[in-house]
Task: structure prediction
Amino acid sequence: MPSIRATLPNRGSLCRLPGRQAGRYNRRMPIDLRPRAVFLMGPTASGKTALACALAERFPLDLVSVDSALVYRGMDIGTAKPDAPTLARHPHRLIDIREPDQAYSAGDFVADALPAMAQITQAGRVPLLVGGTGLYFRALQYGLSELPRADAVVRAQLDAQVRELGLPALHARLTEKDPVAAARIHATDAQRVLRALEVIEVSGRPLTELQQGRGTRLPYRVLKLALLPRDRVPLHARIAQRFDTMLAEGFLDEAKTLRARGDLNPDLPSMRAVGYRQAWEFLDGSVDAATFRDRAIFATRQLAKRQITWLRSELDALTYDPEAADVAAQAAGRVQGFLDS
Result:
């Protein structure tokens, strides 16, 4: 009977790769046992919802909305919320979960998204997170910084300064105090400009410095897909066409209904959403109908521009031109490979 030693391979031949030099071994890569998730990102009007639904038809995917406006009930037309037949066939979690008089933050989104993803995973399916709010995607994937809570006194002071000096002046102040944050935050984004200045006033430290210490990262293996237009002309045309369709479907009536509630004002995050802000100005009598339309379309184009800029910083995302005829097939092939890996 041969000895145990005689039955073992020669020392040095264990896991040796063919053709490799002696002494070099195949080190197995660790197996990633985390559940899978798919991110589908893109600018407004790029066709994200249609692509997400097409992928959900083919693969075991359940949809989670990543949109700071779709969380609000009663804001359907102006947010281009998926219609009832679409939501009946492909339910989206995190749609219609707040009233428009309530604030909703990136922290709230993470707190809502993680349980939703866990439920999908436990059901043996894969969460597909679809939307255009880059801050929410980033907070979910990389965690949130420990930032100071909102300070009502400081915020009231900043609001008064906006009315007195104008938002450009406060953005210039942010440029002096935190140039990195100022470069990232658009000069017309009042909510984020004021929050960055508020953080500085309350903590005595720049927002950028505080954000370097992130929280727990997402416990999922993520495939990131991004619709990134090579040519913005078709996107701009689609934005204008979509807004005209919104008007025809009764967007102004929707805005009037929201205004008539009595508990909303133009400074709320919900009413600062693109389109609603301009509608409020029109209903106030500040601008005429033509100016309202032009401003709303321009603001939507600016939003798309910011979203595209952010997407270009997502270097690990696989990008697709939404105008490509085979974009759905390309994305489906990548999802198939991801689910099979």
